[in-house]
Amino acid sequence: MIDKSRIEEAMQTAIDHSTADQTEVLANNRSMALTRFSNNYIHQNVAETNMSLSVRAVIDKKQGYASTNRLDKDSIKEMVDKAIEIAEHRPPDPDFISLPKPRPIVQRDMVSDTTVDYTPKQRASAIQRLLNVVAPRNFTAARAFSTGYTTFGVANSLGVNAVETISEADLKTVVMSPTSSAFGSAVAVDVSNIDIEKIALEAEETTLRGQNPVGLKPGTYTVILSPNAVADMVSFMAFAGFGALSLQEGRSFMKDKFGQQIMSQNISIWDDAYDPNTIGFTFDFEGVPKEKVVFIENGTAKGVCYDSYTAKKEGKKSTGHALPAPNPYGPLPLNLIMSPGDSSLEQMVKTSERAILVSRFHYTNLEDPIRTVLTGMTRDGTFLIEDGEIKMPVKNLRFTQSIVEALSKVELVSMDRELREGMLGASYIPWLKISEFNFTGATQF
Amino acid sequence: MKDLTSLALDVAKTYGATYADIRVIDEEHESIAIKNGRVEEATTSTNYGFGIRVIADGSWGFASSFLVEKAEIKRVARLAVEIAKASAMIKKENVVLSPILPVQDTYKTYVEIDPFKVSLEDKLALLLRAEETVRKTPGVSISHASMNISREKKVFASLEGSYIEQEITESGAAVDATAIKGSDIQERSYPNSHGGDVATAGFEFIQGLKLDENAGRVAGEAVALLSAKQCPSGEFTVILDASQLALQVHESCGHPVELDRVLGMEASYAGTSFLTLDKLNKFQYGSPIVNINADATIPGALGTFGYDDEGVPAQRFDIIKDGRFVGYLTNRETAPVIGGQSNGSARADGWGRIPLIRMANINLLPGDSSLEKMISEVKDGLYLATNRSWSIDDKRLNFQFATQIGWEIKNGKLGAMVKNPNYTGITPEFWNSCDAIAGKDEWRVWGLPNCGKGEPTQLMHVAHGAAPARFRNVKVGVGR
Ligand SMILES: [Zn+2]
């Protein structure tokens, strides 16, 4: 691992060299190794070490950006000069006021030496344990096991200076029979907290149960959605409307809705990087500490998250949700949490006369960001429930459904939640039972 | 450079590699974007590093680093072999590579105007002209114009004796107009959505797009869409514009013919393919007028190169011939499975990733019709243009695309504009319903700079030649 002091030194070199009015430097040091398997053998096995610096130079109201992964002093200086040159030659942005000033940051301990030092052999042994469970049934397993760490630093000429490291182990697998499949996954700071046998056994059971699916007519059904599927849906919704830029540009579904009930009462969604169940940096890409932001409280639209630029536009304070500048997305939440309910998967099944259980979505995409119309396929285990029991596996279906509408028809929420890596960082998400969900198409398997 | 690449290969061999290659890559990138009259982005970046790929004990290993210096090259070469030996703990068969002749060569994108030598002021001025035209159109909510240029200098050296230097330059630009009223959001883009059009070319390509001349039209359309009627639901004859067809080819033909997907190597993530080995040369993928080829040699196309990232020369070959499925995209590892040699489809996203089977330029070949003729032959149908969103199942059968805009076709004439169009289908049924394809005059190549695949994720720059085409009995207006 590259020393914290070396990272701080590299950032300081850039700031010291800069003649701009304000200067901000981001550092990213990442070492990640990933072992990929398919057809019950390891077919790809990779490792990467990188460290990059990027700088934002502010002259008057003009910002220029440059980045490099050449870390000798001359290259760092050259990068700063380029950013300054860009700033000098572009027109000003009247809405830009200042980079953020430092605020105290309480950091979390998210480094495990076991994860950082994990070897290729250890990853192979872990995958072998997984295969030992599924191979005797003539099932095959595929996907990946990765271990490594990311150190991220932000410093600016106003005194912001923060560096934090997160180690991460991420196991994902799809277990397959000729006619069915199942997904299992776990992510942890400490690789020893990943229970490979448990993941393998659960996936094996779903694969077994999913064999020889029958075709089902698309239509409106009651659905029971797994945390995988809900996390997918909620990340798209957050991307479309939980950030201040989407609100200020009038493309957020939250606009004109604050204080109004837009979802079921049992739905609350917030962002909190400090929740012990999630994994995430405690400050954003401007070095502002992350605050808890409530988006939906008991179904009512409450607020959005801010970076310093969007906050200043409304005379507010940044909530610590900046992405690396410059970016077209504005601030976004990377640690979504959904409130738990008092139900369980078992109870959801038992109380269903006729419903579809969805284990996972595939290739979801927004067709309309304000109406939050999402389309996608089901994958890795779709089941028909009748009279309170899982009746049979069904072939995969396509849905076309407004997310906000779906979340306004939530009958039950599970007490148990799971951490799921999605399009937007990590989300801590329960199972949901939704009374109406539109399946608009079907496929052949 | 040769001393560094030789060192990597020697060290790998010493520790037990039976095959090794190293790629050293120096990338330079520039992005500029204007939104609502303000500079949203003006940034330059460089990214330098190397990756060493080896076979040891019959299995693959790969390691990479940003520190291009001797001590680090030795460490990384040794690590790559250690990783390969760990892979060999769980292996089926030894990896066998299709044979290749060692090559010493260089390749360079032809560039008329070096995009890195054009001043920031000139670039900003070009974008501002287009963006301003959009901004000043009454009813527009968001005006946007963007430009991306990049240059990749890469060296490939292998234990088999190849040493290839390539320099690939890319240029692309776009202008977008968004109109919002209540919960209605409409966007129009030129020359295409999702970042516009990109080519392996210089600044002349960006100038040739004539963003400013087209900005007013797309801005007007975005605003007009707000008061347009909803796209009808039902089964219709549909004509797709060439840019939407490019994405249709990408998702429903390009991905399912990647042989690694077919063999299950991507099963867990992107998925597998309905085009299983038994279908090769037998399966009627589309109607007899459907011809699709792979061609990594098209001058200026985004997927064009001299050699792939295994040192195999760029090639042209058939994928779909007279509607029949006849070819996969292969690399050196998978080609022997179907008894062939690699057709040069292995590419990596930078120095920190391994080459995977990737599309280069996958093209729907021109037919003998024209957009005008196709429209004139339709009694009741729709003309849909410019992609808005895409989704397809993990075997690449059931797809659903939304487009930015559509027009009714009534009695052989283009009629009223319709908004929020989408269409869905099953890949072979859809391509078998293709009954007309426009000719050479309306055929062009579209660059797609954002094709995701693999773990860790890799983004690849590919392209698709297409001309407008017509499809019968397409399900339109899904979930409306
Ligand atoms: Zn793709």
Based on the model shown, name its key terms.
heterodimer; A: 445 residues; 13-stranded mixed sheet; six-stranded antiparallel sheet; 10 helices; 19 strands; B: 480 residues; PmbA/TldD fold; 2 domains; eight-stranded mixed sheet; five-stranded mixed barrel; 9 helices
Describe the fold and architecture.
The complex is a heterodimer of chains A (445) and B (480). Chain A has helices at 4-17, 73-88, 113-116, 120-134, 196-209, 227-241, 244-248, 308-313, 345-350, 403-406; strands at residues 22-38, 41-59, 62-68, 140-156, 161-176, 181-188, 220-225, 269-271, 293-297, 300-301, 335-338, 354-358, 361-368, 373-378, 382-386, 389-393, 397-402, 410-421, 426-442. With 445 residues, chain A is of the alpha+beta class. Chain A has 2 domains: 4-203, PmbA/TldD superfamily (PmbA/TldD fold, 2-Layer Sandwich), CATH 3.30.2290; 213-445, no CATH class. The mean pLDDT of chain A is 97. Chain B folds into 2 domains: 2-227, PmbA/TldD fold; 230-476, no CATH class. In chain B, a hairpin with a 2-residue loop joins strand 6 (163-181) and strand 7. The termini of chain B are far apart. The model of chain B has no long low-confidence stretch (mean pLDDT 97). Chains A and B meet through strand 1, strand 2, strand 3, helix 2 and helix 4 of A and strand 2, strand 3, helix 2, helix 3 and strand 17 of B. The complex binds zinc ion. Zinc ion binds at residues 250, 255, 451 of chain B.
Spatial separation of the terminal alpha carbons of chain B: 59 Å
Query: Can you count the helices of chain B?
Result: 9
Our measurement of the CA-to-CA distance between the termini of chain A, rounded to an integer number of angstroms, reads 46 Å
| Largest interface (C-beta under 8 Å) | A-B, 93 and 80 residues
CA radius of gyration of chain B:
23 Å
Bound molecules: zinc ion
Q: How many structural domains does the protein architecture of chain B include?
A: 2
In terms of DSSP E residues, the strand content of chain A is 35-45%
> Low-confidence parts of chain B, pLDDT < 50 over ≥5 residues?
none
